[in-house]
Amino acid sequence: MEKIISGKTINVNEEGYLTGFSQWDKTIATEIAKEEGITELGPRHWQIIDYLQDQHKKEIPLSIRKIGKSGVVDIEEFYALFPQGPLKKATKIAGLPKPASCI
Questions:
Q1: Residue range(s) defining the domain that contains residue 54
Q2: Is residue 35 part of a domain?
Q3: Which listed residue, of 27, 46, 89, 91, carries a Cα 20 to 30 Å from 75's Cα?
């Protein structure tokens, strides 16, 4: 299905995840973050988004436990930065598919 974000038409699935990473950019990420209740993406958000995208490119499955052990962010900060389902929110904002570990 199509959705317009920042004047761009993007394709998303029924849960709002981008269906093609090539459509992602920081402007779209910022708008998705606002929809998810995160009013501003700070430097720590972007570090985590970069890490998630890098792991996805390497085809490494994502999980909260793995992110907590990554050295990029601990679990407590991850939940503080991306409240109420941090992995689901962070991957959606990063333009990635919903992780298999998320229900």
A1: 2-93
A2: yes
A3: 27
